[in-house]
Amino acid sequence: MQAIGFNGTEFVEFEKEIDSPLAYDLLIEIRAISINPIDTKIKQTVTNTQTLPTILGFDACGIVRSVGDKVSLFKVGDEVFYAGDMTRDGSNATHQLVDERIVGRKPTSLDYDQAAALPLTSITAWESLFDRLKITPADKDKTLLLIGAAGGVGSMAIQFAKQVIGINVIATASRAESKDWCKKMGANVVIDHHNLVKQFKDNTITAPDFILCMGDPDEYFETMAELIAPQGSICLLANASKDYNINLLKAKSITLVWEMMFTRSMFTTDDLIKQHELLNKMADLVDSGKVKTTLTQKLTPINLANIVKAHTMIETGAMIGKLVITH
Question: I need a surface site. Which of 29, 52, 96, 247 has the fewest CB within 10 A?
């Protein structure tokens, strides 16, 4: 197969033998991929000591070409989408092996490029809201604050919060186009990233019962501790680079949790299949018209130049929605 890998210094094209699928594996012919901020972060950890360049990439959409002997969820010819596994080769290639338990059916109403925009951010947003923060339909009269809501995860979190629960959503964004995007996704109120406490007071916004922080937690920890309603919950996505005074959370009895969408695949947890179920549920929401693709920019075809270009675009930190590369 043809692959595009990173050797610690630059992206390179190379050939690699296609392995046969074993056990729960699907061999997927890739038709479209999406580049995420985590792709650029993983790239920074790659060294030039590996025998072969590291194949990066998580989001992908394609067609099942062969299956392992334990596969029961899919068959050859099925169209699928998925976010992959950090411990295996990524999606920047013509073919990829992926465990069927983290793969979902492609939404029938979407093209390959539109579907490829969704898996990683959908899983992250869904797990953050419903597995980590444990928001339920009983919370529909409460308030959720989404910090950094115009990106891929935020775009899905707004839609899930509104379409699945109906909870009041306060989103933060900086630029005018980012704020418009959050409103388009369904946010009730959109405010600026900065001076959150003052904006909540000036606009008499109800204290959030739940906070999902998609920005740098170092920048927001003390603000979140001040803003959060008593007995509320905070979920973080990005790595912390400094120590926090967690005693700030004690008086209000605040719950602090983390979300890492690769936890299930990385540790092969007993509930690994939940990501398959989640992606199928996501496909149903899309096909019923309740949730929209977050594709905003597209490059074609999948090649070395466009992989490099996509990483450069993501590294600006100014993306709204998702960037996809397609054949």
Answer: 247
Strand, helix or coil at 258? strand
Strands 79-82 and 103-105: antiparallel
> CB count, 10 Å around CB of 231?
10
Q: Per-residue pLDDT tens for 90-111?
A: 999 999 999 999 999 999 999 9
Q: What is the pLDDT of residues 231-245, one digit of tens each?
A: 999 999 999 999 999
| Contact status, residue 18 vs residue 1, Cβ threshold 8 Å | yes
Q: Structural domains in the chain?
A: 2-118+266-326 (3.90.180.10), 121-258 (3.40.50.720)
Comparing 52 with 144, the larger pLDDT belongs to: 144
d(CA 280, CA 286): 10
Question: How many angstroms separate the Cα of 29 from the Cα of each of 32, 80, 102, 118?
Answer: 10, 10, 16, 18
Q: Could you identify the residue written with the tokens 């906070």?
A: 211
What separation in angstroms does the CA of 15 have from each of 94, 183, 188, 322?
Answer: 10, 45, 49, 28
pTM (whole model) above 0.90: yes
The Cα–Cα gap between 33 and 185 comes to: 22
Which tens digits make up the pLDDT trace of 136-170?
A: 999 999 999 999 999 899 999 999 999 999 999 99
Q: Which residues contact 277 (CB under 8 A, 6 or more apart)?
A: none
The answer to whether the beta carbons of residues 55 and 77 sit under 8 Å apart is no
* pLDDT value for 317: 79
